[in-house]
Design a protein that fits this description.
Elements: H1 2-13, E1 20-25, E2 28-34, H2 37-40, H3 47-54, H4 56-61, E3 66-72, H5 76-84, E4 89-94, H6 101-107, H7 109-114, E5 117-119, H8 124-134
Parallel strand pairs: 3-4, 4-5
Antiparallel strand pairs: 1-2, 1-3
Helix pairs in contact: 1-8
Length: about 140
Amino acid sequence: MREALAEAEAAGAAGEYPIGAVVAVRGEIVGRGRARHNEARSQLAHAELAALQDGGEPLWLHFEEAVLATTVEPCPLCLGAAVMADVPHIVFALHDPLVESGLIVEAVPYVRRHIVSYVGGVLEAESRALWDRYRPGWGRP
């Protein structure tokens, strides 16, 4: 999660939402991503998508051992990407009360079948501090 926080720090410093993500396989980081909405001029330039796409061959070959770590609870788009990449473990720092993707994991059998663990609150205070620094007063997440 600390590596995801470093990506979030870089995103915030670049004027983006302070969101970062990493994908680890067998304990090694194989993919990194950060929010790049402004840079890419796209609402789809999410940290989690970038990290999953950066996972390459290790993620392709050993997806069953992959963990997606992100500084903010994944939105439905990023949750869906993790499901489609067969990443069984998702860990996030800051819960997003507007997103509530955990409800999707609980309620949708197809998603529940793919996601083995969905854990939030890991280094939550550190992620919140990034939001307070780079997006003060922004009520979300």
